[in-house]
Amino acid sequence: MRIVEALTRRLALRDDVVLARDVVDSGDTSAASVPLALSKLVERGEVPARAPVLLFSFGGGLSWAGQVVICP
Predict the structure, then answer these.
(1) How does pLDDT run across 7-60, given as a tens digit for each residue?
(2) Which of 8, 22, 36, 46 has the fewest Cβ atoms within 10 Å of its own Cβ atom?
(3) How far, in whole angstroms, is CA 7 from its chain's centroid?
């Protein structure tokens, strides 16, 4: 959560646009964290179809990756 909150501040994002904060419920699911979080958001209807979504993840050794996709 510290990384998510720091990134939210650094990118000057509003809290209501940072939807995936499910680390408390899901724990550390490694590479599956991002698609699992997106799947939950889509199932709950929290992301509208065709919305641009920033997917961003940090890994061991300070590796990171990010991409913008169009939500299904």
Answers:
(1) 889 989 888 777 666 667 777 777 788 888 888 888 989 888 899 998 888 777
(2) 46
(3) 11
